[in-house]
Amino acid sequence: MPGYILERLLQSMLVMLAMSALVFAGVHAIGNPIDLLISPDATQDIRAAAIAHYGLDQPLWRQYLGFLNRLLQGDLGRSLVFNMPVTELVFSRLPATLELALSAVLVGALLGIPLGIWAGYRPDSPFSRLIMALSVLGFSVPTFWVGLILILTFAVNLGWLPAGNRGPTVEVFGIGWSFLTLEGLKFLLLPALNLSLFKLALMIRLARAGTRELMLGDTVKFARAAGLSEFTILRHHVLRLIAIPLVTVFGLEFGSTLAFAVVTETIFSWPGVGKLIIDSITSLDRPVMVGYLVLVAFLFVTLNLIVDLTYALLDPRLRRAT
Amino acid sequence: MRRFWSEFAENRVAMLALIVVIAIIAAALLAPWIAPQDPYDLAALDLMYARRPPGTVNDEGMVFRLGTDAQGRDLVSAILHGLRISLAMGLAAGGLALLIGVTLGILAAHAGGWVESAVMRVIDLQLSFPPILLALVLVALLGQGMLPLVLALVTAQYAYFARTAYGAATAERQKDYIEAARATPLSSARIIFGHILPNCLPPLLVVATVQVANAIALEATLSFLGLGLPPTEPSLGMLIANGFPYMMSGRSWISVYPGVALIILIVAINLVGDQLRDQFNPRLRR
Amino acid sequence: MNLLQVRDLHTHFLTRAGAARAVNGVSFSVARGEILGLVGESGSGKSVTGFSLIGLVDPPGRIMGGSILFDGQELVGLPASTMRALRGRRIAMVFQDPGATLNPVLTIGQQMVLAVRAHRAASLAEARALAAERLTRLGIPEAVARLDAYPHEFSGGMRQRVAIAMALLHAPDLIIADEPTTALDVSIQAQILVEMRSLSRETGTAMIWISHDLAAISAVADRVMVMYAGRIVESGPVGPTLSAPLHPYTRGLLDSLPATAEPGALLHQIPGNTPALLSLPPGCAFAPRCPRASAACVTDPPLVRQTDRLALCHHPLA
Predict the structure, then answer these.
(1) Does B11 touch chain A (CB under 8 A)?
(2) Could you report the predicted ipTM of this complex, rounded to two decimals?
């Protein structure tokens, strides 16, 4: 087991390195890197100073090392629009996005897995068919449109829930979280629901497919022959067996949740990292874009690592034999 | 072939979906002729009739069956043309992604050795990246416009095709008849085109349908975020975005109707894809 | 009274193309502690018979008629919950491939505890103790430690022993074994056959041993039944039946064994193929392939009795 962990850690670090190289290459290939660091209308003197400071007259590999060095120190440059360090900016917005994404993922899993298992257990019941039909909608319909409809129905027509922005926050460990207040939850509900729909649909379909296949298989037959109740079979055998592919997809999908948060945050004016990146693309705030890229790459690699490790925990066949 | 169709037709929903898709494609192709108004002709637009509800009649006697948008465009026409653009983008991006992806996948399977592992590692890495993020990044770097958008869509999707083609090609290669064929003087190209490729088609067809739907959705999302096509040729996403500010003030039709059109298109394509997937999946057959 | 009395059992598979009569009027009985061998080729209906007895026929299959009397209780038409109480406790089943039937992500201890608790309230310690005891009886060393092992850490033969141990947890009256040794090495096969036989004698558990392997049956069973196309064509004590069969099909099976063949001569084969269950010929299903067939064979063959032996044939071999 430790060997496996070490191996995966090393792999992740290699990928991170490759990613940083890619971002670096991308930055230098597309346009003048100086534009990433200072505003395009800066004077010549400032430009010259910046070039010297960032070593942009140095050979490429030196620049890359400098880039890496700055990365490791957490220096991602300064935002042109907000005039503050990118790292600070991103981290101030991150809690909001994390809150949203985690809520969405929770909803997707807690609702999706049981529904999916039921749909796989009784695939021909009308309830199952309904679930499946709705799940098709769940992941064909673009997130932004669902958000629109949600706002239209619940905020505009029914007036039950607010149409945007984040609710009041409560400080925990120095970070403000809005789900800890009732008001905050009201603001969180629609965006989280919106973001979770895709995941929900996916979970339902996966859980259903897995369950259906398992129910027709030998393990279930043997368990039935031993006289286990259907519920016990579902809980102990089916759930544990479908957990493996589900966790994998889950972990990977968390990344996509973060990506789709971009859309949800825009619609609901949720002050998270996603909205930040859209705003910075439209306002050409290049340092923020690069910073976002690096952050996302890091998150992805970490996510993959966590998924791999969880996989090993769930499937004993992957652990090195004692 | 006949059995394929009769099985397909058994699923009423999928059959209906297929008809809807064909109808939409037909409508989109015929849009310039059947739309009551040319939504790109700025001269024909009259701001007097902007933001009017469905059913309004203008002074030339034309009925705005679905209302008008913020520039006074007839929504029916805008939607028809928007569908056209969405479909075009989806098919173009999907088609290109298919070509690139399949070529890569089959070549990787054929080449073997370190080429195979290197290519597939890149593909796998890319598969774990959500398409929307890739598209965002590319549009951010390349700016807006038709070309960056198509490029973004293709980059986001070719990996699926590559993986599917690779998987199918690898499975085929291990079968005995390919071994036999390689023992004959048949060139590699003939083996690939004559044997491997035809057997990859069923899973590729399924992936293609789903990916076209995804491309359409992705393009709409990007347009909605303001990162897609220029506003003079509004795709459905842009139409929806344009109508968003008016949702609160009760003029929801500007967003809702284009949205409904988009949804119908995407869902119909997905339903067809679903049915194809079920039909090609040997494990679900009793 | 016999432990198991089956009368005119019909299990059909209702497909779009018609009803496949997998079990087409099967009658037999099993006495307490007796080992009955059920022999037949693939498609003969032997596995389906086994599944019918324990109530695990998968749709589109269904028991269409007949009676299964287990210890005086009618099993056909029994409500699902009552049947479930019997499964594992009084009638148990062992399957062909333990690699597929044992859950790879649970330890065998966890799986055995689940099986114990399915039928009685037991603490974890009690359940584990029972499981360990059964494992030891099946010859698995260090049973207590092995409870925390996963199925993939056992060899094929050991896995099957685990499955058998699970079947024995509640000391059932009847064990149905569906090709239990087919997936194992020949040497292990022989071991398990011998062990099963002595186990049955020790515990007084009756067994129905389903197999296509005549040699295995002859080693383990007391009585044998031969099935063809959903019907029992011959039955009797294993020794006489397999040395001097009454039914031409049994004769053909024995002659096809490589062991009985003359070295250098062509292997004997029964000509033709097993019939498709959807289109059975009228009368005797074996007639198209039978060297003794005559015009009479288009009518249903009679049941010929010879002391404790039965054959379903117009022209039995004695």
Answers:
(1) no
(2) 0.84
Return the pLDDT at A6. Answer: 80
Q: Give the phi and the psi of residue A131 in degrees, each rounded to 5.
A: -55, -45
Dist CA A87 CA A245 (whole Å): 35
CA-wise closest residue to A256 among B129, B93, C149, B258: B129
How many other C-beta atoms can be found within 10 angstroms of the C-beta atom of residue A93? 19
Q: How many CB atoms lie within 10 A of CB C231?
A: 23
* Tokens (6 digits) for A217: 């298989």
Asked if the C-beta of A23 comes within 8 angstroms of chain B's C-beta atoms, the answer is no
Residue that is written with structure tokens 């292990």 in the block = C188
Reference B97, options B108, B86, B105, B107; nearest CA is B105
CA distances from B130 to A202, A259, B127, B157 (A): 14, 7, 7, 10
How far apart CA A276 and CA A91 sit, in angstroms, is 11
- Cβ contact, residue pair B221, A152, below 8 Å: no
pLDDT digit string, tens, across residues A161-179 = 776 777 677 776 666 676 6
Query: For chain B, how long is the longest CA-to-CA vector?
Result: 77
Q: Does the CB of C268 have a partner CB in chain A at under 8 Å?
A: no
Q: What is the pTM of this model?
A: 0.73
Instruction: Indicate the range of A41-50, C139-148, C199-208, C211-220 predicted with least confidence.
Output: A41-50
Give tens-digit pLDDT for C159-210. Answer: 999 999 999 899 899 999 998 888 788 888 888 888 888 888 988 899 999 9
Q: How far is CA B196 from CA A281, B180, B200, C27, in A?
A: 44, 13, 6, 52
Mean per-residue pLDDT, C32-47: 89
Closest to A236 (Cβ–Cβ): which among C54, C101, C114? C114
Q: Do C95 and A237 touch (CB under 8 A)?
A: no
Q: How many CB atoms lie within 10 A of CB A59?
A: 9
Tell me which long-range contacts A122-128 makes (C-beta under 8 A, separation of at least 24).
Answer: A123/A208, A123/A212, A128/A208
C-alpha B202 chain-centroid distance = 18
Contacts of C54 in chain A (CB under 8 A): 225
* Cβ atoms of residues C205 and C279 within 8 Å: no
Six-digit token string for C244: 């001097």
Task: Report how far residue A205's alpha carbon sits from residue A131's, in angstroms, rounded to the nearest whole number.
Answer: 9
Residues (pLDDT < 70) of chain B are 1-3, 37-49, 51-52, 55-65, 128, 143-144, 176, 178-179, 181-182, 185-192, 195-196, 231-232, 281-286
Distance from CA of B285 to the nearest CA of A (A): 11
Q: Assign A160 to helix, strand or coil.
A: coil
Q: Are A255 and A299 in contact (CB under 8 A)?
A: yes
Contact A263, A274 (CB under 8 A): yes
- CB-based contact C211:C217 (threshold 8 Å): yes
Query: Are the beta carbons of A293 and B137 separated by less than 8 Å?
Result: yes
CA distance A265 to A186: 15
CA A224 vs CA A232, C6, C86, C114: distances in Å? 10, 22, 11, 11
What is the three-state SS of chain C?
A: CCCEEEEEEEEEEEECCEEEEEEEEEEEEECCCCEEEEECCCCCCHHHHHHHHHCCCCCCEEEEEEEEEECCEECCCCCHHHHHHHECCCEEEECCCHHHHCCCCCCHHHHHHHHHHCCCCCCHHHHHHHHHHHHHHCCCCCHHHHCCCCHHHCCHHHHHHHHHHHHCCCCCCEEEEECCCCCCCHHHHHHHHHHHHHHHHHHCCEEEEEECCHHHHHHHCCEEEEEECCEEEEEEEHHHHHHCCCCHHHHHHHHHCHHHCCCCCCCCCCCCCCCCCCCCCCCCCCHHHCCCCCHHHHCCCCEEEECCEEEECCCCCC
